[in-house]
Amino acid sequence: MKAHAIGEAGDLFFDLAEEAAKRKWFQRAIDLMRSKPRILVLGQSGTGKSNVVESLKRDLPQVIDRMTRTEYAKKHRISLGKSLVDVIEVPGQEDHKDRRLGAIYGMKTGVAAIINVVSYGYHERKKDVVLVGNKQIPAVCADGSANTDWLAHHRMLEIQALGEWVDVLGDRTVVGALVTLASKADLWWSEKQAEQVEAEYTSGAYLKGLGPAGNLRPSYSPYCAVAHRFYDRGLISPYFDDDVRRSLRTNFLRILLEAIGRT
Ligand SMILES: Nc1nc2c(ncn2[C@@H]2O[C@H](COP(=O)(O)OP(=O)(O)OP(=O)(O)O)[C@@H](O)[C@H]2O)c(=O)[nH]1
Ligand SMILES: [Mg+2]
Fold this sequence. Notes:
The chain is α/β, with parallel strands linked by helices. The protein folds into 2 domains: about 1-35; about 35-260, Rossmann fold. Helices cover about 40% and strands about 15% of the residues. The protein has 9 helices and 8 strands. It has helices at about 5-35, 50-55, 95-105, 150-160, 165-170, 185-190, 190-200, 205-210, 240-260; strands spanning about 40, 75-80, 85-90, 110-120, 130, 135-140, 180, 220. It has a 6-stranded mixed β-sheet with strand order 2-3-1-4-7-8, sandwiched between helices. It has a two-stranded antiparallel sheet with strand order 5-6. A hairpin with a 2-residue loop joins strand 2 (about 75-80) and strand 3. It is elongated. The termini are far apart. The model has no long low-confidence stretch (mean pLDDT about 95). Guanosine-5'-triphosphate binds near residues 64 and 69.
């Protein structure tokens, strides 16, 4: 072959390679723009939603400071297994009810799954005292144990919060599945307590509070996003360690992938 013919063949090869690369990038850009399965993360302020979302991005996220609350609904594009998904978290604070309802009512169709984050009442928010009636209830007792009145009050708020969305989203044509995620297992983990927490979220007042959302193939998963002392001074369960955290994470990711049909 003459030198100039070799040169032309070479140019053609490079043109084709360049074209293929362009198309690949173009396809990738289209794939990225195309809408992804949406996962909506709900739950009261301080249950641990944002830390759960961060733990979907990396195995061990930083503990979010309790003064850093989510102010607006946020979308995160995250790799889950082999899929990209859009995870939308809502602000849980009472003051942000309008913003939260805006995000909930905006979900007219196509929510692959809801993750409702609860934490057995271990809500850690800006204040560490709550006024119930005329009684001041601190979160943590002097001996480092969590105050049972604080826990009971916040469990009641978790059930109340269901009322904001179950009538709108408790519809199988809108939402594919519901996972109740009982986070902060590092604070409450033990064999006996794990049974108690599971019963709390699979029966009784919580199940009743789900109302129509009981049709969303509800599943339950205990979880821990980060190990952290309650209000920096509470006790961590002596039965909890990093092996437990990892196995809960693996189990939750399996349940979530199953829920969105991506196993
Ligand atoms: N022990 C423990 N603490 C956690 C865990 N996840 C979060 N926390 C703590 O709980 C606090 C609240 O968690 P966030 O994820 O910010 O709560 P949120 O539900 O996003 O709250 P809003 O943004 O107000 O709606 C954090 O500041 C952490 O201190 C967990 O898995 N275990
Ligand atoms: Mg948040």
